[in-house]
Task: structure prediction
Amino acid sequence: MTTFITCCRKKMAATKDDFRRYWTDLTLDPDTAHPELGLSEDCTEATYLEHPPPVPDHSDRFDYWEELLCQQPLEGRCYWDLEWRGEQVCIGLSYKGIARKGDSNETRFGMNQLSWCLDCSVFGFSFWHNAERTGIKAAPSSRIGLLLDHEAGTLSFYTISESVDLILRVQTTFTEPLYAGFEFSNYGDQVKLFHLKNLG
Result:
């Protein structure tokens, strides 16, 4: 499978409203969440906790990297956006079959053929797939939008503010439904998923 990556930094003649017809409300899957990740009651926010409460083991749970997946399988055209806070959060997309146990690259977003990952930090962005890194020249941003066209094999990342800026487009072939996911690096790192009804 060949993956083509195009890095962009240009103003788009678009706003969040242009993506609403593709909007998909996502919720986090507590059964996949690493034991040190705490979820909000509505499963739209996750935080990397220094002193988490105990959780039961689960076959779907990531047990080494501080990762989790969302519940909804993604096909067709889907758009979602989120806000991340802290020092470093990876915004991933993965097939359901990604490994969950141990510290190998097979269990980490962007480090294998089953997943793609936008690494967001206070220093900027980079993109990972199959353990290969692509640097992105774009100013740091805490609000990120993703547009997936599963049939066309495209995944686009945007920074969201008063304007919508395309920073990265991936062209590949997706062979099965995908699942959004996240990886956290430091205590206090957070992700909040936005639902359309809450945007007004």
